[in-house]
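User: What would this chain look like folded?
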Amino acid sequence: MIYEMLAAVMAFLLGFVSSYSLRGKKNARASAKNGNGNENSLKSCENGMCQPEIGASTDIIIVGSGVVGSALAYTLGKDGRRVHVIERDLTEPDRIVGELLQPGAYLRLIDLGLEDCVKEIDAQRVFGFSVYKDGKKTKLPYPLKNFHPDVVGMGFHHGRFIQRMLKKASNLPNVRLEQGTVTSLLEDNGNIKGMQYKCKGSHQEITAHAPLIIVCDGCCSNLQHSLCDPEKVPYVSSGEMAYYLKTKVAPQVPPELYNAFLAATEKGNIKSMPNRSMPAASHPTLGALLMGDAVNMLHPITGGGMTAALSDVVVRNLLRFLCNLNDSPSLCKLLESFYTQRKQVAFTINTLAGAAYKVLCASPDPARKEMRQACFDYLSLGCTFSNGSLALLSGLKLCPLSLIFQVFVVGLYAVGRSLLPFPSPSRIWSVARMILGGLGIIFPIINAEGVRQMFCPVAALQSYLRGPPII
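Assistant: Here's the prediction, encoded as structure tokens.
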């Protein structure tokens, strides 16, 4: 912490005294924590293998086989659970979603034993980001010095990645995959007891029962009624989308990618994926658990979607503590603990994504322009100054307090550079507007994510104590 505080003071002095002269293009060196990315392990029963109940055909039903569903099917099946996966379409997905796996998400794949699923799918190693602004650019490498050389980001075809995970899951004898559409959940006095679904190609409804149903069928889930209506996008078939990409998007593309972007647009194989913004709100319903995009979506600007999704799966370790899923009181405590423990990761990723989008998107507001320039200049300093932000962005360090600290440091830098060469009344007024604008961005996001859960440790501690003990 002393090291980070020194970095904060240095950032302020650099911003106040020499923000422009010290805007370098240095090669960043990592100062990330030394560790293997594993979550806290939980007490497991019978050497980590929960034995299925006698006479029970299914322990857990998983609705959806995307990143969360397929990873869950494998890990729960490996734990000895009898798992039934119901997916609308088990063929290889071909859509735009989840193409970037941040280094932090790769560490979670290792935790789940799924790291081999990024092999043999033409995955490309990603070592960081390049940020472009007004003809200038800066490179932002991931802070990976203290991690194994295999730990990097990955870019790949989403469908191939899903198929690799599904193949591993289907090889387990206690995991059953089925194509079908879930139509409704069966409720009894507020408890979810089962569900109804239709097999593909059939109109007959089938009833399935299980002590726990995990819904992870994405943002368009018909079981999650609190979803917002997506913003409409231009139609692809009429040519509106191609025209929009050429006239609106192409002028903003970096020169190195401009020709390739136009060539891809001319091919006409354009796909769109509407995005919704949903805070990580909990839905503690006995017998049912919401995971992934069905309960929480964030802006894709930071590429943190799969980090959040796979973190949800890692937290599934709570289930290893509970052998008897029919024990309703214990299951209720477990579900409460799950939503509390996932909040730390979800809050950090969601707040970072929302704030980054608001600051970096184009705006005629002079204060927003100043914030955008300050962020670019700060990241351009490299080394110690960018490592903290990149550790959050890459999912290597997901802590709400670290996020708040980084926002504070960048704010100090922005204030210092804005007061150059001396704090005249006009510059002081500009700084005041910038601070108010920044607070107007970050506070609504924090409020939507849940202030009490993040900044009231007593409430969080009580939830932890109600759930299974972590050792």
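Confidence is low (pLDDT under 50) at residues 1-9, 11-56, 226-231, 457-471. If you want, I can go into more detail on any region.
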